Model the fold of this input.
Amino acid sequence: MRRVSRALKSKAISSLKRGAGAFNGMDDDGRQTAVLLHLQHAHEMLLKAALRERGIDVFERSPRRSVGRSIGYEKCVRLAREHLGLSEDQQGTLRAIASMRDDEQHWIADLSEGLLYLHARAAVTLFDEVLREVFGETLADYLPERVLPISTRPPADIDVLIDEQYTQARELLRPRKRKRVEARALLRGLLAMESHVSEDVAVNERDVNRVERGAKDDKNLAEVFPRLSGLGTEIRGDGPALTVHFTKRRGAPVHYIGADDPREAAAVREVDLQRKYYIAPNDLAERLGLTAPRAVALRRALGIDDDGDCVHEFVFGSQRHKRYSDNAYRRMEIALDEVDMDEVWEQHRPGRA
Done:
């Protein structure tokens, strides 16, 4: 094993132990904060260890030289999808933990005990899966025999837990309760959970204000948090062998409207487009192993530049910059195994009418 990989893996396991210790600890003071901080750090270190083990650079690069700083969590997850084969559900778990940790570290958020348990157990399951896949080891190899998962309350169905937290927030917002801060913390926790089903979630005060209005108006859960209707869990085994996976499922039809649409919507989300569309044309070509002109030909053949899920044009004054999403990269990567690039080049090369 590479020396750097070994050091990063050791840090990951140490943080996971700290997180598990905080979760199972008898002291509630600062418990949720400690659990989320350690779980997020554990997975960032493990992903970097796994990427280094596969020979992938984890340092930021400028066009000519290394910036000298390791990549952040979001880029780690993207590289893990590309080089470690993480599934959409696994990425959702990582994003949700990061989103909840972000709110917990920088402001106020809250999760019920049941939801915290599901996320902690899903994090342990994912950690063990990456450890097995990349290093051929199991988490049990690093834990003392006395360690057992402790829960005085078995995990309930995810729908029940989400509904309980939303109902609690609505009750706290009733007139004369004077529990608005606590209610908004619960709502922020639910907003952060939307990271399971979308990579564009960034919780802000406007989002919290909107869902608070919906809760005060006694709107039901599906109206205020439409994305959470597509979230499910798959729980297998029991005791030490219990595994938890968050999954996406087909939910009720959802109608999304623009942030500037005058119609009322309880949970309009503002999307950070620069997080979704972050790949420059030359970077996209480089990732695919193509020259820039041949990448243009393939984009034309697939209609990438006409697909709003794949491309967005940013306008800064008189300058226009196209940026592409992971959807564009995946479609082009799959197409390279199915099309004849010489034929694509002949028919769609730049300059050809």
Summary: The radius of gyration is 22 Å. The beta strands are 59-61, 66-70, 231-236, 243-248, 311-316, 319-324.
